[in-house]
Structures are given as structure tokens and as C-alpha cells.
Design a protein that fits this description.
Strand order of the largest sheet of chain B: 1-2
Number of strands of chain A: 0
Helix content of chain A: 55-70%
Shape of chain B: globular
Number of helices of chain B: 19
Structural class of chain A: mainly alpha
Largest interface: A-B, 31 and 24 residues
Distance between the termini of chain B: 18 Å
Largest sheet of chain B: 2 strands, antiparallel
Radius of gyration of chain A: 19 Å
Strand content of chain B: under 5%
Order of helices and strands of chain B: HHEEHHHHHHHHHHHHHHHHH
CATH topology of chain A: Helix Hairpins
Distance between the termini of chain A: 36 Å
Number of domains of chain B: 1
Oligomer: heterodimer
Chain lengths: 112, 477
């Protein structure tokens, strides 16, 4: 279920990137796509009835069912990278606005 | 014994330090790059464990015949490029250190997720470095398509992880070879992700915007070093890890062939110097991809080496010409080399090597491509590669004639006006171009060394038993 939700978010992000001509909206679409992707990655490591993969005094048996911790580590890294890219894109958006006085690609006369 | 992790850690550490010690950031940059350029000559070929966990549980760095020579070439050329543009790079010293760490990481890593992280580090550094050319909107397009591409790549490797339970390249390669199901969607996602960076059609819309206005610094950096490293990564993933076969090889090869032909056609039609080289880069990427997909890894390695060196000189000289003259329209550059013959000769040698004239390194690249393709595949791929080579020769020779010839065809010498502009290009640029041009000439006369190395490099991708045994051991160090 979460996997499907993740994939739907990825598709919504892609749709936004293809159809929107406003720079801020494009950045938001990219973020929606990244969130969908992160959700998908976490869902890959999900195990039914699994507990957090940390050995404690209570949970100290290797016979317990743990969720896969690796996708969680991957998502943490992906979130940080996504934040960096978003911050950089917003800095570019600001620079573009200063030059063109608009966020809309149509109004800038850009053909692409 | 030298640890290759230092090639990533030292530039990253110095990057942080350069934010605090702003006044000495340029010396820190030079120091970092100098250190990397020297360290590369002392690295041993083996798999290095990072953080005490043996692969496939931990991340490892791999130094083998495939990437060692690229690590040397990229680090040395990076240092040379920075030294040649020392005054221009001052505001970007920190970012350049990050870029150096990113490129080294891309070449060294033996882990698919780690590769994603380094793609992002190197890309973010590239986005910031490209702001030097003040083309914010064009770079913004690159950010969007680059981030989308790396997201697709990440999705691809996560699907592979879900299927095989590993992210280690060598381990994954073994599991894929032994598996029965081909994860087609994951392959396509990874291909689309990397295709943006290696400039394959239809994913290369960003290249034109970014490289046609590139300076003598950003041009060689993005058009030569970044492009070369990304092709090496493509080869590592599609030549060494993912086991493609049948229809998939055919369909992806078609994308490569279309990229090659379209790139050469666009270069033929280009009116500006840097436009010619960016389209030629696209074509060369297509060629390298075809060779990797056809399993001709050693020839692909030759193409990448030749492309890194020749495009480095061509972008450097073209960027300098554009900076001095104010434009790079070919029609207005008639006889430009008449006043700067040494630079012209270096440029000419590099261009002639690119089209594969005998005596130059490019000749052995081209002949090896054709021999390997004729021996391994059906006739249509080498035939199309030959057509592309013909188009390439046509526009390069036309370009050279324009840049050396002052008058029109058939015009009498006494009526020809001498060029009014003088090409004031610094000694360093001339020296670098001439040395690299001579390297192409010398390796053209004595190609054995380079060809032997490329065969060794290609064999690493075809048979990576050594690393396989090591990584399969697993467990703590």
C-alpha cells in the first residue's frame, strides 16, 4: 500500500515537472517526486510486525523480527541531498527572478 | 600504502576549512589538488574496506586497472585546469574542492548507493560552478533534469536492492549473473538516470544551454572531466554490474547510435565553435555507450581517454578565443591562428586526433573501434559509426581551414587582408594545449602502452573475479 502511494507521488511529481512552467511550482513538483521516492524506499524495508532494528535489554534476541534498517539509512541520506538540491534550486529561482522579474518561463520568453 | 579514501576525505576536509579560513582558500585548493595529484601515483590496485565492515555489508572503494588510469588523468588535469585559471577560480575554491571529492568518489566507489551520493555531490558542485557563466536559467534546467535523473537512478537501485538484497557492485554483479529474472524496469530507470549525465538523446537538452556559453574553465571541467568520469561510471554500471542481454542491448544500442549520428549532424550544422564541440561530445558519448553495451569495454576505454584529452584542449582554447574575441562564431574567426601559430598547431593536432588521422592517437582509437565492431556485431553498427566518422572529419577539416585560412577560396594572396585581431592567449594555456597535443601525437606513434592498458581495463569489467572473491567473504574486518 505504501509502495503504491509512493509511486503515485512520484508520478504526480513527474506530471508537475512536465506540465508546470512556473519555477517555484517545478521545484515543488521535484520535492513531491522526492518524497514519493523516499516513501517507496522506506516501504522496501518494511516487514509486517517488525520492530525497530535496535538491540535493547528487552529486545535482545536474534529470533525477533526486525524491519530492514538499510533503506531507512538510504532515505536519511536522500532527504539530506534533496534538501540541498531544493535550497540550491531556490537560490537559482531568486537569481532568475532578479533578472527576469517573473517566475514564469512563458513570460521570460523561454522556448523550452 | 596510500589510502584512496584520502582522495575524497582531504578535499572535503579542506573545503570545510576553506569556509573558515577564507583568506587562504586558494592556497588550500591548490594544496588539496596537488596532494590528490601526487597521491594517485602511490595507490595500490585492490578493494579498500571503509569503516571496518567488509563488503557487501559495508561500503568499499575499488582501485583496479579500469579506474586507476582515469583517477590519474582526472586528478592531474583538474590541477592543471585550476592552475591555468587561478585568477578566475578564487570565488569557487570551496566548491572546486567538493567537485574534486565528488569526481574521485564517482571513480572509486564500489557501492551503488554510494555512487548516487557522489553523483549528487559532483552535480551540485557542477551547478554552482556553472554560475560562473551567469546563465542561471539554463543551469536551473540542468538542476531540474539532473535531480530528476538521479532520482530515477535511485529508484532503479532500490528496486534492485529489493530484489537482490545488496548494493555492492561486485556482489550485485554475481547475483544478477546467477539469477533467473531480469529486472528490466530497474535497468531502464538506471539507464535513464545515467543517460542524462552521459548526454544521451533524448536526455541531453541541458548540454546545449550549459556548454555553449562555457568559459575556458567551465568548458574543460564539464565538457571533458565530468563527461569522462560519467562515462567511466556508465561503463562500470552497465559493463561490470548489470548483465544486459538480447532485446535490451539492441534497443539501448539504438539510442546510442541515434545519439552518435544526431550529435555529429548537429556538430556539422553548428556555426559556433563551442557548439561544435558540445555536439561532438554528445556524439562521442553515444559511441562510448554503444561500445560498452556491445561488450567492447577496452575500446570504450580508449574512446573515453581520447575524448577527455582532446575535449580538454578544444574547450580550453575555444573558451579562451571566446573570452579574447568576444564571440566564437566560426565564420568570423578566419585566420585566427595566423598570429598564434603554436596554439593553432596544438588545436590542430587535437582536432586531427579527434577525427582519427593516421599518426595521431585518435587513429588507433578509430581503427580499434572498427575492428572490434566488425568482429563482434553485425554490419550496421560499424557502417553507421563510419558514416559518423565521415561527418566528423568534414566539419573538423572545414573548421580548421577557416581558422588557418585568411582569404576566400581562389583569392589571390596579394589581395588578401591580414586578420586585424590578435589572439592574446596566456602562455599557460598555450603550454597546456601544446603538451596535451604532443601527448596525443606521441601516443599515436607509440600506441602500444595505452592500448595494452585499455585492454587490461576492459578485462576488469569483463571478468572481475578478483574483487568478487574478496567481497563475497563478508563479515567484520
Amino acid at each position: 500500500m505504501i509502495q503504491i502511494a509512493g509511486l503515485i507521488l512520484i508520478l504526480i511529481g513527474l506530471y508537475g515537472l512536465i506540465t508546470k512552467r512556473n519555477i517555484i511550482k517545478m521545484i515543488i513538483a521535484l520535492n513531491v517526486l522526492e518524497i514519493g521516492l523516499n516513501l517507496f524506499i522506506v516501504s522496501v524495508g518494511y516487514v509486517q510486525d517488525g520492530i525497530a532494528p535496535i538491540l535493547t535489554e528487552v529486545n535482545n534476541s536474534s529470533g525477533l523480527i526486525f524491519v530492514d534498517p538499510l533503506p531507512q539509512a538510504l532515505v536519511l541520506t536522500a532527504i539530506v541531498i534533496g534538501m540541498g538540491t531544493t535550497a540550491l534550486s531556490l537560490a537559482f529561482a531568486r537569481k532568475i527572478y532578479a533578472t527576469h522579474q517573473t517566475f514564469d518561463l512563458n513570460e521570460m520568453g523561454v522556448e523550452e | 600504502m596510500s589510502q584512496p579514501i584520502l582522495l575524497i576525505a582531504i578535499p572535503l576536509g579542506l573545503a570545510f576549512l576553506s569556509i573558515i579560513l577564507k583568506k587562504i582558500k586558494v592556497p588550500l585548493l591548490v594544496l588539496g589538488l596537488l596532494f590528490s595529484s601526487m597521491l594517485v601515483f602511490f595507490i595500490e590496485k585492490k578493494s579498500y574496506i571503509i569503516g571496518g565492515f567488509k563488503p557487501p555489508f559495508g561500503i568499499n572503494l575499488v582501485v583496479d586497472d579500469y579506474n586507476l588510469y582515469f583517477i590519474i588523468i582526472v586528478n592531474v588535469l583538474f590541477l592543471v585546469l585550476v592552475l591555468a585559471n587561478l585568477s578566475a577560480v578564487k570565488p569557487m575554491a570551496t566548491v572546486l574542492l567538493v567537485a574534486s571529492a565528488g569526481l574521485n568518489g564517482l571513480l572509486l566507489t564500489g557501492d551503488l548507493f554510494n555512487l548516487f551520493v557522489f553523483i549528487e555531490i559532483a552535480s551540485i558542485a557542477a551547478f554552482i560552478l556553472l554560475t560562473m557563466d551567469k546563465q542561471f536559467l539554463k543551469v536551473f534546467h540542468y538542476i531540474i533534469i539532473g535531480t530528476l535523473a538521479s532520482s530515477l537512478y535511485l529508484l532503479g537501485i532500490v528496486i534492485l536492492y529489493a530484489q537482490y538484497g545488496t548494493l555492492n557492485m561486485a556482489d550485485m554483479s554475481g547475483l544478477i549473473d546467477g539469477g533467473s529474472i531480469t529486472p528490466t524496469i530497474a535497468y531502464l530507470l538506471i539507464f535513464a538516470g545515467l543517460a542524462v549525465e552521459v548526454k544521451l538523446l533524448p536526455f541531453n537538452g541541458w548540454v546545449k544551454g550549459v556548454l555553449e556559453t562555457a568559459s575556458a574553465f567551465t568548458g574543460p571541467l564539464i565538457g571533458s572531466l565530468y563527461a569522462g568520469v560519467m562515462l567511466v561510471v556508465f561503463g562500470r554500471v552497465f559493463g561490470g554490474v548489470l548483465n544486459l542481454s538480447g532485446t535490451m542491448v539492441t534497443s539501448l544500442t539504438i539510442i546510442g547510435v541515434i545519439t552518435l549520428l544526431a550529435g555529429e549532424f548537429m556538430a556539422f550544422q553548428s556555426k559556433h565553435l563551442r557548439q561544435v564541440w558540445l555536439n561532438s561530445s554528445i556524439a562521442q558519448s553515444g559511441l562510448a555507450v554503444i561500445l560498452f553495451l556491445q561488450g567492447l569495454h577496452h575500446v570504450a576505454v580508449l574512446v573515453i581517454v581520447a575524448n577527455i584529452i582532446s575535449k580538454f584542449v578544444l574547450y580550453l582554447v575555444s573558451g579562451k578565443i571566446a573570452a579574447v574575441i568576444g564571440h566564437d562564431k566560426i565564420a568570423d574567426l578566419k585566420g585566427i591562428f595566423m598570429n598564434k601559430k603554436a596554439l593553432g598547431i596544438a588545436f590542430t593536432i587535437t582536432s586531427l586526433s579527434l577525427i582519427g588521422l593516421p599518426l595521431f592517437f585518435g587513429f588507433f582509437v578509430k581503427i580499434n573501434i572498427l575492428i572490434a565492431l566488425f568482429q563482434s556485431s553485425n554490419m550496421w553498427i560499424p557502417a553507421l559509426v563510419l558514416i559518423a566518422a565521415l561527418i566528423e572529419s568534414a566539419y573538423v577539416i572545414r573548421l580548421l581551414v577557416t581558422m588557418w585560412q585568411v582569404g576566400e577560396e581562389g583569392e589571390k594572396p596579394e589581395t588578401i587582408e591580414k586578420p586585424t585581431f590578435s589572439l592574446k592567449v596566456g602562455f599557460v594555456t598555450c603550454a597546456i594545449s601544446i603538451i596535451l597535443g604532443l601527448m596525443l601525437l606521441v601516443s599515436g606513434v607509440y600506441p602500444d602502452l595505452v592500448i595494452n592498458q585499455s585492454v587490461k581495463a576492459g578485462n576488469v569489467l569483463s571478468v572481475n573475479d578478483e574483487i568478487q572473491v574478496f567481497t563475497m567473504e563478508g563479515g567484520l574486518e
